[in-house]
Structures
1.
Amino acid sequence: MTLLATLDPADADLTACLGRVMAAVLKPGDTVALQGPVGAGKTHFARAFIRARQGDLAEDVPSPTFTLVQTYVDPLGTEIWHADLYRLTHPDELAELGLDDAMRDSIVLIEWPDHGGPLPDPLTIALDPHADFPELRRITLSGSEARWGFATRLPAIARLIHRAGWVEARLIPLAGDASSRRYFRLLDGDRSAVLMDAAPGTTDGYVAMTQWLRHRDFHAPEILAADQHEGLLLLEDLGDDLVARVLAETPALAPRIYDRMTDLLVDLHRHAPPDFVLRLDGPELARQVTLFADHYPAAVGAPGLGAGIAPAIEALHAELCEGIAPVLGLRDFHAENLIWRGDAPLGVLDFQDAVAVHPAYDLVSGLQDARRDVAPEIEAAQIARYVAATGLDDPRFRAAYALLGAQRNLRIIGIFTRLAQRDGKRRYLAFMPRVWAAIQRDLAHPALAPLAQAMQGIPEPSAEVIEGILA
């Protein structure tokens, strides 16, 4: 058993806060061993955990000292067993209580676990009185790293939430993205916030870009609290009206929504990009597109093909894009990362990888969306709208748009392949045919003939080819 994390000192509120954080991440089959003397806060922790799992349906959670076991059900149908083994006379009684079976398919919280004998790979939470302050306690988390390594993050999350004044909040997991970041919604009465859980030390770019955007009246989420060393940010909750969701529910709004997206870019591009962002120039675009040649051809039975793609992109960028001042590119500017707020400005999410890049880059990102079809007439109208608003040379802009579209979409194909083969994230492969179709449209531009030649012989991601990637 390995010491995973420590929370010291912890008052009653912070102890309960840790219980609520843990309730958001544990799953059926997880067992928690709660150790500590009488009055250390074991039942207090368990009560916070169970009530957080139950949400609006929360019940009273009495101590199971006399009943030995109490069971609860959360809204998703998960059974939660709360046991107190202090009065257990023999470990064999575990089976009589049903705990052996429960530990296979329920979440089990056990106080005084040592009275029941060895448990199967539990997360052990020890609550011990603080040496100097009796009202405080020292909490340690221990367990096997292979199973419980994720728990090392939980005390830091609890500390941030406690410090920010959200001690009563429940945490609800939100859908993640292609990165390693996790998101949780915090609910506390009629207020809500979003917690970003990123790798330690990786939020500086997000914080800097948030400040830059908000200073210029773009609606990035306000940062409510932060622990940048741990990679934790508590953010304003902009709601659930992702542009992607609004487009799916109200397709007739598409022309208006895409007008607003283009106008946001026009406004954004009136500001010189900050000097702390990466310059996404020809050499860097070429370097990044090697993700395609490094992963996709070999995965589809064509190893070695595509070596000429990166040099072609670098040469074409010098020909088609040089001479145009770079603008700020949010890089993942698309319907999944924008919030529809009616007549209010669009909310902007996921911009920590912002770059200085040719003006066409984010327009491509929004209009050649890997996750959804954008009507050809809308794409054409938005290109024309952007050119008219900025006064850029129309033919030259369209050639650059095609080049950046091809580069971006080839890189996406490479990323999707790597995510499937290295990380087991296979759901992105379903987007490949749409991305490939966009590449073919981009390559049809006469200026991209050298890139089209470099693509010769590489198979398209047909159903059979995608099945091969999965194999």
2.
Amino acid sequence: MSVADHTLDIEFAGPDSGAAPLTAPLTWGQRAIWETIVRTAPDDHYFNFGHVLKVPGPRRTVAEASTALAALVERHGALRTRLSEPGLPGEVLPDKAGGEPYQRLAERGRLPVVITDDDPDRVLDELAARPFDYVGEWPLRVALVLDGDRVTHVVLVFCHLAADGFGAEIALRDLRMLLLRGDRGGGAIRRPGALQPLDLARWQAGPEGRKAAETAAAHWEREFRRIPPTMFSAPTGSAADPPIWRALLRSPALELAVRSIAHVRRASTSTVLLTAVAALVGRFTGHETCAMLPISANRVRRGTADIVTTMSQEGLFTLDLDLGGAGGASFTDLLRAAGPAALRAYRSAYHDPADRNRVTTTIDLERGESIRPYCCFNDMRFADPGPVACDPDEITTALARTSLSWPMSQEKLNCRFCVHLTVDGVSLTADTRYLSRPDIERFLLELESFLVGAAVR
């Protein structure tokens, strides 16, 4: 960043004064991402994500932007909640904390904010490049980008313990309104205060939460007894250095094909892609049953739509690729079976990780081997582009605009195979000790060919 940068501390004071205790167990989403962070460290900056927000309306002074940021942190408890550990002096432990980490909500504090005139995208990359200090640092990093003495952009980087993609969008929506209205009080945001992570943690530990958890656990237990131990168990070529690589496929033809298939088969584009990825995983690995872990937003229950926290978790999707046939099922048959299987998977995503760990341990012992799919699917698009009728010639002509790049590599990841859907395209992040770089590229190109072929037929 610029040599002229400096840091300003913004004071905040939440509405929680007098509320006790200000600690609670981790929510299911927090615990799920925490376990993933632990397995990925020291490369856990992988889970940081952020946004560049262009200041709406008239450009604001640093003081006005600071006032809006303080109001944002005061409104959303997740942005002033840090990880804590038993043994800190003067703290009230949440029920059943034992020796486990828990969450601690701060009533007040100071948020450091970088003041800079550097390029906003470069600032975003720098703020996101290092892991968070989950105990000592606020779970939000902020920079104000200036043109002269006015703020043009606000750069925010979120710790994944505090927010997922949907939670971050809620925070951005509120900050945009606070900047536009210039009002620190309730007038700028007239919606009632959203559910807070501490409230959610207590609900999950109560009778309604336990009932939902038990239903999800039954699905994991049933399916773990029949799926392959893991989807990627043997090398397909030479490992790269570093071993974790991501390839990004930008393919207008694939997008058109998916929307066309969704139109004909009356399915969502997400289900079409999930099914196609599962089919190709079977082709690459030889497994007749594919087990994948799709990420679910988990925001369908009352009070969770507007909460800033991390709600997203893995569900368990299983698809029998043969479906009783001698030579493998058709893509039409697979799509028909995938609809209800995906619904069961997304329901199972709202689960207590402690139950999942218990189920995993039990089934490991029963089967005498470790059961870990290590195969993920994450549709990160905020809206399904929707089915649409497409001319086959339009789809095949678009193949000329396909491109593939390698935007990321690192030493360590908690998974072996992760497909992400974004507005930029379809990416595959994989451990090259189990899927080589040439095979990562081949998988994405075969996914395009598979879907284009299905659409034009």
3.
Amino acid sequence: MDAYGRMCGMASAESTQASVHEPDPVRPTQEDKVAAAGSELIGGPLGRRALLGASWWTPVRVIALVAIGMFALGLVQKAPCYNGAWFFGASSQYTHACYSDIPHLYQGRGFADGLVPYFDKLPGDMQYLEYPVLTGVFMEVASWLTPGSGTIQDQEQWYWMVNAGMLMVCASVIAVCVTRTHARRPWDGLLVALAPAFALTATINWDLLAVALTAAAMLMWSRGRSLAFGVLLGLATAAKLYPFLILGPLLVLCWRAGKWRAFGTALGGAIVAWVVVNGPVMLFAFEGWSKFYTFSQERGVDFGSFWLIMAQNSDSPLSTDTVNTLATLLMLVCCAGVAVLALTAPRRPRFAQLAFLIVAAFILTNKVYSPQYVLWLVPLAALARPKWRDFLIWQACEVAYFLGIWMYLAYTTSGDAHKGLPTDGYHWAIGLHLLGTLYLCVMIVRDIFMPERDPVRRSGDDDPSGGVLDGAKDVFVLGPAARPARHAAAQFDGPQVEWGRQGADGSL
């Protein structure tokens, strides 16, 4: 009987420990009024069995299928262009809002002629492919899978379709990674899967490759796999420039928590991965490899940025060099602001929050804010502030801009007919999508200063995307937060469930 009693006691202890370390998944329809209202369209809030994955319809599978379905709707939206607008009318691809770079660059960047990116010169002024190496590889692989028979229009259609299939895989990876990053909040992945701007802009360019690698890197960091995070982030940076910015907030957060080893491992993995991809091309085709960086430096102000509004309303627009300098200074100011925020906040900010803010700062201060740049922010927004109301407000602004830019281009290419949106109207569209992004930034900053209003922390978590930062004590804090009486994070040394008790009454 004593042995039986000990076994029962051990089982009870294990059960208690599991209940502490494995709290119930968060039900978004119980904590988010918009999610609850929206769920009525599909039969009402989900029950416990659905959340726990008791059937085949687990959150990951549901969200992956929804993401594929939304991606397919985005492809249908491009149907007017696929059926001729890309080839037979400059303005019709804008009036139908179905423009894509992909078919145009098949011939324009030498893929139709079998030219090797970065090594073979292109005809015309461009000379070399102006994309990072890993994106160039993606484009080249798609050209290998494109049938070389038929007219050039047939080949361009196939090239777009092949790329669309490859980008659909990227979209699925993004949705799955976001779903699995916050273990207790899998249904936040629906924010990505159902994002209208995500579906509309997914096949404009090749940005989804870098976004997928970044989302996978965030998942690895949340699991405490610093090296895998670094490698994936290095690959993402080899596909697009923006992912490396995430290392800045991570540096400051690891500084505050004293997690130098994890950051060093991540940084080393990122550098090695980037060098492995870029090194051979740098060595044997440096001029072609450097085209992306020189093009980014030399291009003037472009669509979607506040710099364009200034230029089009000025009799003497700023030179490109001046804009480069001012944009860089603005970005440095934003970086300093994020660093101060990370070190002085009353509770250490979550990794996803600062990642969103730094990428948003880069986009907002940049010379160009292309419509597909929203793809960079969607997965980070779902992790940083999983609140349907704010997410949909931001998405509405982005959809309005998506329509605005094509209507403006229709206006400028329709000749004397002037069909579309005039310049003043386009400036209002730019202002709307800039304000939408700023609005989400403000809400995230408010969450940082008022953690009790953070949807993630209010449900009982600390930093589920933070990996080694999750639940860690602070070792370096500045300002009022450094005082022990007001520094809630420094008082935490119990199991994760304690955060739930602290957040239940809105206190820290």
